[in-house]
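Design review, sub-item: ligand-bound model
Attendees: FS, YL, KQ
YL presented the inputs for the zinc ion complex:
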Amino acid sequence: MAEKKEKSTEKGLSEKKENFSEWYSQIIERAEIVDTRLEMKGFIVVRPWGTLIIEKMYDFYEEELQKKNHKPVIMPSVISEANLKKESDHVQGFTPEVFWLKTEKGEDKLALRPTSETLFTPMFKLWIRSHRDLPLKLYQRGSVFRLDTKATRPLIRGREFQWIESHNAFATKKQAENQVQEDIGITETIMHQKFGIPFLPLKRPTWDKFAGAEYTIGSDVIMPDGKLIQQPSTHLMGQKFSKAFDAKFKDEKGNEDYLWTTAYGPAISRILVSVISTHGDDKGLVLPFCISPIQIIIVPIYTKENKEKIIAYAKRIKNKFKKYRVEIDERDFYTPGWKFNEWELKGVPFRIEIGEKELKKDNLTLFLRDDRKKELLSLRNINKLDKYFEEFDNRLKKNAEKILKNSIINCKTKEEIKKVIKEGKIAKTNFCSIEKEGIKCAEYVEKEINADIRGILATKKEISSGNCVICNKPAKEIVYIGRSY
Ligand SMILES: [Zn+2]
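KQ shared the predicted structure:
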């Protein structure tokens, strides 16, 4: 027994409520999601446990994109300087953040892609001749690179991150705008309904849109410290990129027009941040059943004498769950207690404990990771568990929805906004405009309240009545204000 490690002797995690920032830094390392020890600013190693989760998340996303008729492509990781610089707003927005590569003398300068509009649009120009080739809906999965000079944080803000970017071309503005709405629907289906992360789909103020877009709709998710993190955003590019690249098509009457394009970019590694932060607790991760690399961990409790019997029983149970990802933790050199802590830290949704007591009566002890309750079940009633598995993700989702709902507070004065922001919540209030004329009021909010105008609800028009809380002019919109990452 002497060499058996006891995890309980190790220092516990910081309390998530008390010190979220420290809790986050500890959990991503201890649960073996990432390793930052290569010590290159903004670049991290994602370890097997983290990678397996990310792969599952990619699977759900790609399946949904393909259902909506997007086709995958593999684009180069580099962009020529000439192409990157074709759209002027875009280049101004991104150039300071570009990694440039050394090339051979006489060759075009190359940039590591910070985003890929300037790779897709020249291909649209070649692939699309007429309305018959439209719509063209593509996506790629991969990394992008941004030379961020600010402080980086693993998975939250890095110089390289894993995402999917979908780029689409249409014949009309209406079709392009429908795509933007469909993208919000994909975020809803996957990030909210599958991964249990509710969000506010917000049309960003014009001063906060993607460089080169007509408008941007971001998805804001609340973190345990009350700050908002931007999750998938979708952009109406309009005809800006197609004009820059002279990408045209012929309509039914034979008239030429520029393509209408959109882009959507779910950053999978960043969505993982919300999964970790929203569902996790002081014992570690709590992973949704649908993306946990191991969904059920069986921990056999045995001695030298009864090991064979107990393991055989564990295998019998495992065989009953063929459609799930189940493993038996047979490692002799760890105690059952150590294993319990280990799998709780890693967020496995269900644990089955079996020992002599369970074996005798054909029972099993089931442990639920989220509420940490144990239940003794008979092997005869094992079908009941399918329902448990379904309910698990639903419970995580419902809890997260409650948190978001309770965080949104209607405010009528500057003082109320200040108070709400201090409490780590989101202020909802009358505001003059998210177009250019509102920028002064936005600057006031940034300076005096230390928060941002995040935008207006993009899925439903919320009618404002009354005046802007800042300048007192008639309010055109109802905005959401919060601190952000
Ligand atoms: Zn105003």
